[in-house]
Amino acid sequence: MTHIRRFDHVGITVADLDAAIDFFVALGLEVEGRTFLEGEFVETVCGIPGARTEIAMLKAPDGGATVELGRFRRPDHLPGSPAAPSNELGLRNVSFQVVDIEGAVALAAERGYGLVGGIGSYEDQWKMAYVRGPEGIIVSLAEQIG
Q: Distance of CA 91 to CAs 2, 12, 128, Å?
């Protein structure tokens, strides 16, 4: 018997919620909803008394799993490692399949976000790149080419 029913979402805590939303929307995600949460539920789940957070849920065009972006309004967020290398322990990246990797990388660059390394090719089947987005989030972009 398995306890997992399906993959639901990835949650990412950010300092600038609007910038993070803009970045992911530019890549093609759609805002599903945005709200504030506080009270017993949030305090219990997060283990932070008095917590108040604003979240935005974004979904991919295919309707699959979602990305939850959250900003703590109370207490303030704790600093992270926005320049963490790809091999730092923890959540390494959020990955999306794209239709035009060069176009997606150029779009990110127009917004001030650059490649972690370069665009690589895997066995003439995939092109892949890591882009460091807002708050240092590494976003993996992959294009099927074969």
A: 23, 10, 18
In this structure, what DSSP letter does residue 88 have?
Answer: S
Q: Where in the chain is the domain with CATH 3.10.180.10?
A: 9-74, 94-144
Overall size of the chain counted in residues: 146
> Domain 9-74's class?
alpha beta
Residue 7: pLDDT over 90: no
Give the fold, CATH level 3, of 94-144: 2,3-Dihydroxybiphenyl 1,2-Dioxygenase; domain 1 (3.10.180)
pLDDT digits (tens, 9 = 90+) for 75-93: 988 888 888 888 888 888 8
Residue 73 contacts residue 15 (beta carbons within 8 Å): no
69-76: average pLDDT: 94
Give alpha helix (H) positions in the chain.
17-27, 40-46, 101-110
Higher pLDDT, 101 or 65: 101
